[in-house]
Amino acid sequence: MDLVVEKLSRHAALSPTEIRVLKEAFDTRRVLEPGETLIAEREPPRFVGVLLEGMLRREKILSSGHRQILGLPLPGDVFDLHGFLLERMDHSIIAFPRSVVALAPHSAVLELNRDHPRLGALLWRDGLVENAIFREWIANCGHRPGPSRLAHLICEIYTRLAQVGLTDGLSFAFPLSQADLGDAIGQSAIHVNRTLQRLRGENLIRFIGGRMDILDWEALRAAAGFDPLYLHLVSTDRPTEALLPLEAV
Amino acid sequence: MDLVVEKLSRHAALSPTEIRVLKEAFDTRRVLEPGETLIAEREPPRFVGVLLEGMLRREKILSSGHRQILGLPLPGDVFDLHGFLLERMDHSIIAFPRSVVALAPHSAVLELNRDHPRLGALLWRDGLVENAIFREWIANCGHRPGPSRLAHLICEIYTRLAQVGLTDGLSFAFPLSQADLGDAIGQSAIHVNRTLQRLRGENLIRFIGGRMDILDWEALRAAAGFDPLYLHLVSTDRPTEALLPLEAV
DNA sequence: CGAATACTTGAGTGGGGTCAACGCAAGTGG
DNA sequence: CCACTTGCGTTGACCCCACTCAAGTATTCG
Predict the structure, then answer these.
(1) What kind and span of H or E run contains A3?
(2) Vertex B57, ends B55 and B59: CA angle to 5°?
(3) I want to staple A32 with a disulfide (CB 3.0 to 4.6 A). Which of A39, A64, A99, B26 is the partner?
(4) Residue B242 touches chain A, beta carbons under 8 Å
């Protein structure tokens, strides 16, 4: 959970009490095997989670039979907050590689929000960033020119992993198959293959054995038209006052 | 504001105090002329809003110059909750026709959540439904077959408008141009035109003068592969216990 | 070592994009 | 009242991006 505490602390220092309350709420651990479903479409959500290790995907099967990947929770991300007031899941959450999650029952999160509203707001903030990512994916699957889409996804994953210290320079674990990539950006796996070859041919990336190496970040960023604004990272040029001063709530 | 009170009341009865607190928080009115920007990308969000009349669009200009519409807040919808903990807007919000919004400063919403957590949770719920809509739009712009996309958007708008009583049978105001429709579903305006003609030719819809008439709901729904699960409507088959009993928070 | 899965490559095709022109209605101003 | 403009919708011609089908090649795994 230290990963999560550190991530939340970037926006407002957590008191020892808040850290304790947070850890007590998310006291359940669950290990997911590769491909295991954490929760399926139409099931009632029973908990809020944070991913500690591995990688998850949100997915939905369309009436045409196609699969659409809706999002990729990474370690440190809070997920299912989106559903904790809703009756049923509108999509499934599935583990890519072996993953570890920490779970909190909804009642614990409601209590946490009631008794420590500032901590609740920080958890919400994390969920809000994911919503901004959803919106960016609409643009990525929509009007963004074809070849840029894949580059954009790579830029996003790299930037998000770097935020939680899970990159090694410009290299990082990337456990998606070409079919997965296609379902994430709304293209066929075969076309993803050809686009990958192009990115490789232009010496922008190397991608073998589940590991992605970015060889030319600036060129990749330009090809993607990637602007990290939507990730709402903590940056040095943001307003100097704390996001959530203690007196705010 | 009665529209909003009624909408929220569907999920848990509001006490007279909660209704008063809600109305006091959203005490500012603002009228937007057609095409007027409520808030632009990169600006710091200053308020939470609910739309009372008209229609808004969330949009983003991509590096390619293309415009992508990310969402369509309708009357009764809470918006910008998504941004009330974030430093800058990652997209713009613009009025389609003349629209009226009610605004609450962030401090009022933080206070509301602190002092009336159940009311805060109901507002959050509305935001969560919008997130589910974002996810569905990813699928709509992504892997959904072409002709279904337009039909799906029409089904969604109809269903959401019907929820707040803004439909007249199967007829409703629909102030989007074909260019807007294209930017919403990730297609060119010209192709939208041809798809519209097809839907008209099959006697599924009539669409003139900013008004949409659905002529054959079941056929349109089938063409779209539309399943309203993601709208998280209040339905008769949901769990009988109240979503947010008073003792929950 | 076979079986399954993932990746690669080629050939053929069609959906949807772009460009360009035109129709039509609603303003607008002389 | 008419000439001009502006915005939106419609239609045709052309073409390319990306999909599908199909076959072949690693690579992993029981």
Answers:
(1) helix A2-9
(2) 170
(3) A99
(4) no
CB atoms B248 and A110 under 8 Å: yes
Largest CA distance in chain B: 55
pLDDT in tens, B155-195: 999 999 999 999 999 999 999 999 999 999 999 999 999 99
CB < 8 Å from A in window 101-130 of B: 107, 110, 113-114, 117, 120-121, 124-125, 128-129
Nearest Cα neighbor of A245 from A121, A127, A128 is A121
Q: Which of A41, A191, A224, A185 is nearest to B143 (CA)?
A: A185
What pLDDT is stored for residue A244 in this prediction?
Answer: 52
Backbone angles phi, psi at A246, to 5 degrees: -55, -35
Phi-psi group of A100: left, alpha or beta (phi > 0 → left; psi -120 to 50 → alpha; rest → beta):
beta
Instruction: Find all residues with CB under 8 Å of A203, minimum gap 6, and list them.
Output: A215, A216
Nearest to A139 by CA among B142, B122, B194: B142
- pTM metric for this prediction: 0.91
Interface of B with A in 25-44 (CB under 8 A): 41-42, 44
Which residue stretches of chain B are H helix? 2-9, 16-25, 106-115, 117-141, 146-163, 178-185, 189-201, 217-224
A24-62 tens-digit pLDDT? 999 999 999 999 999 999 999 989 999 999 999 999 999
Residue A35: which region, alpha, beta or left (left: phi > 0; alpha: psi -120 to 50)?
left
Longest dimension (CA), chain A: 55
Q: What is the pLDDT of residues B101-131, one digit of tens each?
A: 999 998 898 888 888 888 888 888 888 899 9
Sequence-distant contacts of B218-224: CB under 8 A, at least 24 apart: B220/B151, B220/B154, B220/B155, B221/B155, B223/B147, B223/B148, B223/B151, B223/B199, B224/B148, B224/B151, B224/B152, B224/B154, B224/B155
Gap between the Cα atoms of B41 and B61, Å rounded: 9
A176 CA → D27 C1’, Å: 16
CA distances from A155 to A212, B17, B140 (A): 11, 48, 23
Distance of alpha carbon B242 from the chain centroid: 24
B207 CB and strand D closer than 7 A:
no
The angle at the Cα of B155, spanning B152 to B156, to the nearest 5 degrees, equals: 85
Q: Do B225 and A67 touch (CB under 8 A)?
A: no
Of B163, B202, B105, B144, give the one whose Cα is nearest residue A70. Answer: B144
Phi-psi map region of B186: left, alpha, beta (phi>0 left; psi -120 to 50 alpha): left
Question: Taking CB atoms and an 8 Å cut-off, how many pairs form between chains A and B?
Answer: 166
